[in-house]
Every structure is written in structure tokens, then in C-alpha cells.
Amino acid sequence: MTVISDRTANSFVDTVERRVDKGEIDIPMLPDTALQVIRVTQDPDSSAQDLLKVVQTNQAIVGKIMSTANSAAYASASGITSIQQAIGRLGMNIIRDIALASSLNARLFDAPGLEGHVQNACEHALMTALWNRRLAQHMHGDADTAFLCGLLHSVGLPIMMQEVVDVAESTGMEDITEQLEFVIDIAYELTPQATALALKSWKLPASINAIIGNYLGSRDTDSSLPTLADGGVQLDESAQQQSHFLAAAVDLARHSMVDFLDAAELLKLDSIQALGLNQQSLEQLIAAGDTVKSQFDAFSL
């Protein structure tokens, strides 16, 4: 393996950190369909027909809806052959989730040499979104907002992966795969800041920013973390609850992706304890693990 000089390594780190501090990182444009779906979902005056109009304009998403409707997780005895049948089978909530997951996937990011890591980051975000929705349903929270926050909670990670690739090229690191552990560590370290910058850039609803911002703040003590909620939106009780759901969902996703969902062990986690669940209640929740996994597989097709 090629060993980089201290000078090159320091130049790389300094450049990445400076770009993040100044908000100069390359944040991809959020697909228009995703933005419209988010706005419709967060607008209490929107109807199912409003959402349908949005998704029907994107053939890639229509195709994804059709493949999901015919997957093992959702398929009926007779095959689904039209978008209308698919919507009737899946319901509008699942349609919305498919549209968002299809828009916010690994193809949105460009990180040559780190494609596998970007894919893993996106898969963990999807699993977190599915568990977050399940948690919200189990504890009578807002399941729609929970899914969206789970999907976006670490969007800064793939953004930082494409950023470290770009900076590596400009600072003389010829083959980033030779320095994989080094550059990945930097990407993870700056993920909270990159997530905050992305959510502000995309001008998402203040409630979403506040929930994710509270989650990031609970996991990152760096005072330089950008404020997510424009105008200093205060977290109400519901938003605080949602941020607790998100923290627990991140841990549930991590454990379920390695097939380790043991209630007794999970109860030792701070994120689970914050929900006030006892072992019996947690066991009831994680009994849905097979359903969550089948939904993950269907969404990942």
C-alpha cells in the first residue's frame, strides 16, 4: 500500500475541513420529485390525489412502485399490472416512501472508488427510515415524518464521501483506495456538519430540520455544528419524541443489518432506554423485524 506523506495528509484534512466550515462542499441537487413528495407529505391540506399526480410524472418511480408491488413483501395471488392496482395494493403511505427512497439513493452521489461505501450508507439510511416508521407506529407518533427523518438523518455521509474523493484528487492523493481507512474516517467525522448543510440547502420544512438537528446535536458535541432550524425553531414535545425515535431507529437499523435483534442487549443502549420501553414491549416491537427486512428487500429491488 502506498504511504502518503504527512504533508499530503495534512493538506487533505485541512482542505476538507475548511470547505465544510465555509459551507463550500458540493451538495447534489435534490431531485424535483423528492422535493414535491416531501412538500405534499408535510402539507396537511394535501390529498392522496396530489401525491399521485407527483409520482405519476416520474417513470422511474412508477417502475419502482410496480416492482415493489410485485415483490414477495407485497405481492398478491394475482400479479399487479397497472399503477392504479399498485396504489390500491400498497396504499398512499407506501407509495410516498417508495418515491422518497427511490430519489434518495446511491445514484444521487458521485464518489468514484467509494461506491460500495456510498451504497452501504444509503442502505443503512433506508433501514433506519423503516425502523423509525415502525417505532412511531408502535408508540403512536407521526409515522410519515419518522420515515423521512430516518432517510435523511445521515445524508451528509455520502455527500462527504464524494467530497473526500474530489479533495483527494486536488491534494495529490493519486489512488484513494490506497488510503481508504484514512479518507473514510474523515468522511464520518464531518457527516453531522455535512448533513446540516444539505438540509439547509434543500430548504426542507423547519420541523424536519429541527428533529434531525436535535438528533445530530445529541450525538455530536462540536459547537460548530450548523443550526438547522431557520429562525431558531424550538422543539415541542412531539418533535423531541421524534428525535428519540430517530436515535433508537439508527441503533435498531445497525443491529438488524447484522441480524442481531436481542431485546435484552438492546435495552442496554441509551437510545432505547430514552424511549422508556421495557423488555416485553421491546420484544413486541422487534417481532416486526422480519416485516421490516422484507420491506427493505422490496424497496432495494
Automatic annotation (TrEMBL):
Record-annotated HDOD domain positions: 27-218
Annotated protein name in UniProt: HDOD domain-containing protein
Domain of life from the UniProt record: Bacteria
Signal peptide limits: none
InterPro entries assigned to the protein according to its UniProt record, in alphabetical order: HDOD (IPR013976), RNase_Y/CdgJ (IPR052340)
Pfam families: HDOD
